[in-house]
Amino acid sequence: MKTPERPRARSLRGRLLGYLLLPLLLLMAAGAWLDHRTLVTPVYAAFDRALARSAGEIAMHVERLPDGRLDIHWPEPPRSYGLPGPPMRPPHFLTPPPHAYRHPRESFLFRVSGKDGATLAGTADLPTAQPGDAGPGFRNAKYRGLPVRVATLRITVGGESLLVSAAETMHWRDHVVRRLDTTLGFSDGLQLVLVLAIAMLGITVALRPLQRLRERIASQPPEALKPLPVESVPGEVQPLVASLNGLLVTVRESAQAQQHFLTNAAHQLRTPLTGLKAQLEVLERESAGGPLQERIAVLHGGIARLARTADQLLALARAEPSAQRPGDFAPLPLPGLVGAVVTTMLDRALARGVDLGADCRPAQAEGVYWLLHELLVNLVDNAIRHAPAGGQVTVRCGTETGVPFLEVEDDGPGIPPAERERVRERFYHGDGQGSGLGLAIVEEIARSHRARLLILDGAAGGARMRVAFPATG
User: Fold this and answer.
1) I need a surface site. Which of 23, 114, 200, 414 has the fewest CB within 10 A?
2) pLDDT digit string (tens) for 357-392?
3) Buried b (16+ CB within 10 A) or exposed e, 386-417
4) What pLDDT does residue 298 have?
């Protein structure tokens, strides 16, 4: 069954930007609406004033002739203008003032009507507005399906009350408003982008103390469970750092208590075991050739294994990263370490009928000598135990692509890939041999040196254990 992927946690930077973005978008929308309302009114008022002046100019040219007829005198000969409509009356009626023209798509209409509503000049079916007491009146209307703006004023000519209406389509008005909205929208959007960029810069600068805190924690060696300084972190983060420091102290004390227990237990076991082993050796010599010789030999082997387990428990306790201090680490030449271990383990290899050899190339790693010695002893001991009689065990060291390594290879049965993770666990021994602590000790020592234990296949079918140290650059 496939394990479902955990959702990716949102970063603090993303959260802050998310909290800022929604209010900024709402403010931008409110500002755009307010700008629109603020600018549309004066723009429309300016258009209305121009339309009212057009109606007033038309009214200035209305006069009563001596024969009693009303006439409108224009400076140009008559011609059609604006939207198609009914014929203008009287026939000699001329075009509206040139300044009433707004845009190629704009159409201008006018109408002069009497108090009974009869059209005296202009477009007969043009809607009119209700004039005000001291000025023109305005309204939005429809003329033949098109929206128009109408301005109507009341004049008196020869004692007769007349209504003069001027109208224009709203293409140009809408175009100007759209241009203003577009300009304001672009300006507001640009301001939003700049505000977000400044906010991102400010958030990045504000989060630098957290970044430095993360780098400090990452750079701290695993064996140094030292409290973190709280003076250089922001006040909001200080409680978190204080809690983390409390946790580090608790972990360090727990690790030290565990280490002390294992150390004391191992020491307490080694003392009586050493005495018991000496007594068995004396008893073995005294009963040489007797009927108890075989049983004493078996008991002697069990005591030896128990003593080895106690030694491994002690080594495991001392291999804990919390037990190491940064000053314990020093540059170590690996060939000398390999030579010392091979010399130590040579008698055991000869007793098992195993050919133990070394293949050393110049290499150096940062580490604690006695810990790396214990690591290599456990790897060689495992290899000797699993190598067949007459087999070979080779200990190597060198540098590969800048990475120093220690390696032990045998020609035994090897380790199946399915068990290569489990053999690292404490007290696991799939073959029934040993205490199951050898590779656990190796794994612990490698971890304290920031190295990796790699379990590979040997050239002759056995196992090849490689400890790869951090690159030397």
Assistant:
1) 23
2) 999 999 999 888 888 998 899 899 888 988 888 889
3) bbeeebbbbbbbbbeeebbbbbbbbbbebbee
4) 76
Q: How many angstroms separate the CA atoms of 370 and 372, rounded?
A: 6
**Residues 161, 117: contact at Cβ < 8 Å?**
no
Q: How many CA atoms lie within 13 A of 360 on its CB side?
A: 15
With tokens 């004692």, the residue in question is: 159
315, 373 Cβ separation under 8 angstroms: no
The amino acid at residue 322 is: S
Q: Tell which phi-psi region holds residue 393, choosing left (phi > 0), alpha (psi between -120 and 50) or beta.
A: beta
Q: Do 223 and 321 form a contact (C-beta atoms < 8 A)? A: yes
The answer on pLDDT for 224 being more than 70 is no
Least-confidence region, from 75-79, 256-260, 263-267, 330-334: 75-79
Whether 276 and 303 have beta carbons less than 8 Å apart is answered as yes
Say what the alpha-carbon torsion angle 353, 354, 355, 360 is, to the nearest 10 degrees.
-150
- pTM listed for this prediction: 0.48
87: three-class secondary structure by DSSP: coil
CA-to-CA separations, 20 to 11, 30, 278, 302, in angstroms, rounded: 14, 16, 78, 71
CA distance 315 to 267: 11
Report the candidate in 346, 329, 334 with the shortest Cα–Cα distance to residue 407. Answer: 334
Q: Rounded distance, CA 19 to CA 22, Å?
A: 6
Mean pLDDT of the chain: 78
One-letter amino acid at 169 equals T
Q: Which residues lie below 8 Å from residue 52, measured CB to CB, with a gap of 6+?
A: 135, 136, 138, 151, 153, 166
Beta-bridged to residue 148, according to DSSP, are: 141, 169
Dump the DSSP string for 273-314.
HHHHHHHHHHHHHHTTTSTTHHHHHHHHHHHHHHHHHHHHHH
Give the residue with greater pLDDT, 68 vs 141: 141
Say how far apart CA 170 and CA 43 lie, in whole Å.
12
